[in-house]
Amino acid sequence: MPEIRITVNGEPQEVEQGTTLAALIERLGLAGQPCAAEVNKALVPKRDHPSRELAEGDTVELVTLVGGG
Amino acid sequence: MTSAKTSSPPAAEPGLDPLALAGRTWNSRLIVGTGKYESYETMQQALDASGAEVVTVAVRRERLINKEGRSLLEFIDTDRYTILPNTAGCFSAEDAVRVARLGREILEQLNNPGAGWVKVEVLHDKKTLLPDPVGTIEATKELVADGFKVLAYTSDDPASAVKIKEAGATSVMPAGSPIGSGQGVLNRNNILLCLELLKEGDAAYPVIVDAGVGSASDVSVAMEIGADGVLLNTAIAHAKDPVMMAHAMRHACIAGRQSYLAGRIPKRLYATASSPWEGAISYIPGE
Fold first, then answer.
1. Residues in CB range of B109: below 8 A, 6 or more apart
2. Is A28 on the interface with B (CB under 8 A)?
3. Any idea which residues of B carry the catalytic annotation?
4. ipTM surpassing 0.85, yes or no?
5. Residues on chain A touching B58 (C-beta within 8 angstroms)
6. Closest by alpha carbon to B162, among B137, B144, B186, B180?
7. What CATH code is carried by the domain that includes residue B210?
8. Of A53, B63, B77, B157, which has the maximum CB count within 10 A?
């Protein structure tokens, strides 16, 4: 499968074409954890993760909750 | 025979009226942050000791490499605490809106009632962490339109406070002094003006003093001048004994509220004796 270049949390990554957001999250070991995702600055709700295919040049943010005031 | 000296133990302690905020009532008027603790264990004990029902959190990138084994959420009982996500670290309305939506998404996954609200922070600069009032108003409008209940961090400027309320904020939260500075309520007059203007014709509008608390007395000062609640983090997290300080903050908040409700005496220039002059056997100068 050809690879596409994306950015995840500021770092360049290469993933197979057709990789979904859910597959990326799984690959990064974050499945099953509270985690919210954005693609190109737009929130992608969890229910849409399995159907959202990533495209060349996509910028993905995967966030969680940390201590804060 | 009954004597006037006899008194029954006090009934329920007065002045513990609940706080009505964001469509719910809360027994504690203290909201505490979860940042800057030396360990999650200490945080957990401090949250418990503070009596808070609402705790704030931040939204940050997942660490993809060198992941630490433990996460904040393992140490916060999401059935006990309502989580208030913040937009700390945002310097534009656009980013604050993004972060608010991400926070809501996580809280929905956790089934936490905090999914409906957000503490909006749109900062002006990293050094002062003072708010950008224009960005705060923009973010508030957009998030309110998106169904959020917005609790907005702002400065103690009464005019911006009113504009933020007009933008639809559920609560305006003026800072006592800069975030983490520990200077307490620096301009009591401005906080009083914020309270007066925000509550004009709308006495129940919740105003929470957010930021700047250094010690327990700062919480009491904010509460006894009429704030509905206080939000703080560093004063507990960085105290020498955070758990002890959390207890102190809980008492200070209650004491301040009771002092406000009880009504303070006016300040006077001269002394007024507490013991009667009549019947004094001593020589009294001037008599």
1. A34, A35, A36, A46
2. yes
3. 119
4. yes
5. 65-69
6. B137
7. 3.20.20.70
8. B157
> Does residue B5 form part of some domain?
no
User: Exposed/middle/buried for B124, CB within 10 Å: 0-12, 13-18, 19+?
Assistant: middle
Does residue B69 surpass a pLDDT of 80? no
Has residue B2 got a pLDDT over 60? no
Interface A-B: count of C-beta contacts within 8 A: 102
Instruction: Provide the number of structural domains found in chain B.
Output: 1
Contact A43, B35 (CB under 8 A): no
Contacts of A28 in chain B (CB under 8 A): 62, 64
Residue B14 counted as domain residue? no
Judge whether A69 lies within some domain: no
- B61 closest CB neighbour out of A29, A63, A68: A63
Number of structural domains (chain A) is: 1
So what's the pLDDT on residue B14?
85
What is the CATH number for A55?
A: 3.10.20.30
pTM for the model stands at 0.92
Q: Is B59 on the interface with A (CB under 8 A)?
A: yes
CB contact under 8 A, A69 and B36: yes
Give B121→chain A minimum CA distance, Å: 10
- Band of residue B100 on the pLDDT scale cut at 50, 70, 90: very high
Work out the angle between the directed axes of helices B158-166 and B133-145 (0-180°, nearest 10). 20
How far A22 CA sits from the closest chain B CA (Å)? 15
**Closest residue of chain B to A32, computed from CA coordinates:** B109
- Find where tokens 């990789």 sit: A19
Higher pLDDT, B67 or B228: B228
Domain for residue B283, yes or no?
no
Question: Domain range spanning residue B247?
Answer: 28-262
CB of B75 within 8 A of CB of B43? Answer: yes
The Cα of B232 is separated from the nearest Cα of chain A by a number of Å equal to 7
Residue A26 within a domain: yes
